Amino acid sequence: GKHTVHLDSKTTNVRVEPFALQMGIKFELHVTISGKTINVSEIPVLSIPDDWMRDKLELHFCKPERGGGEIENVEYDKMSRRAVITFLRPE
Questions:
Q1: Which of 27, 47, 57, 73 has fewest C-beta within 10 Å?
Q2: What's this model's pTM, rounded to 2 decimal places?
Q3: How far apart, in Å, are the Cα atoms of 26 and each of 12, 36, 43, 46, 51?
Q4: Where are the domains of the chain?
């Protein structure tokens, strides 16, 4: 449909059209668990910004159905293809 958008002192009309999203990328992670942290290695190199990769890792490991929990911090190093994920609790 058509929509009117107000930005600052200007108004513009926009039209929304559906579009297809690309399929997600599946990859295998190698994980070592120790207390409140897990070490993730062999993270594939993807052409996305580092902060997006940190977000993807956080979303994956925070899900309770995957044994995850609330995350305190994600350290990601693209060069070594490793990440350290720290949870709030050692569950």
A1: 47
A2: 0.61
A3: 39, 26, 11, 11, 18
A4: 2-87
